[in-house]
């Protein structure tokens, strides 16, 4: 959803399709200014969500945000956007803010990782209550975050690294070459060894239009792609994952999401 709707309206929309959490863009996914915070809307949202059992929400940074761009102007835009988003997040304390680490565009992953950590060091501050999530990427183009090691390296170089978590996107990791269909335990063991399973805070639950290791990143409806319903049943019921918040980013309108939530609730033991 987009925050141009207002927090209360987003929560009501989520409840109307039997969801108990939602993800929203802090501003237009392609960038631009965010709508001013309406404190009355926030107040109503906080009491409505409490009443309806929504305790976690996930904000998503715009796709255009690239903390490791080669162009300093693009990096400056990324920094200012993230700083503003983090400031706005404090109106809903203790929530999560997810971003794509970025694309290093020919500078190499090493430089990319340094630039991303540098930006995080510039915008994070000790009193913030928001957890910032790094999203696992599919490795298309020059994306940083295409493997667990790169995510780990960003965390290690960030001063307030204890405030960083990870959002695992099932389509992205499958496309990146982590076999969540054939060897979910193995993938999660590796995640634990390299990053630490405690860092895993949210799941983007998407099927993939492309086969394993395709490095493509094209989401498919649940059950219609290469991951498939059986694998999703194992994913949502896995002891390390089952209590995490799950977010659909499948190509759907609201009624499609409602159906998928119903399917997933049916598979959830
Ligand atoms: Fe994303
Ligand atoms: Fe995602
Ligand atoms: Zn994606």
Written description of the protein model:
The protein has 269 residues and is α/β, with parallel strands linked by helices. It has a single domain (7-267), classed as TIM Barrel, CATH 3.20.20. It has 9 helices and 11 strands. The chain has helices at 7-16, 39-51, 72-89, 109-123, 148-156, 170-176, 184-194, 229-237, 254-267; strands spanning 21-25, 56-60, 96-99, 102-103, 131-135, 143-144, 164-169, 200-205, 207-208, 219-220, 246-248. Strands 1-2-3-5-7-8-11 form a 7-stranded parallel sheet. A two-stranded antiparallel sheet has the order 4-6. Strands 9-10 form a two-stranded antiparallel sheet. The mean pLDDT is 96. Bound molecules: fe (iii) ion (2 copies) and zinc ion. The site of one fe (iii) ion has 3 residues, from loops.
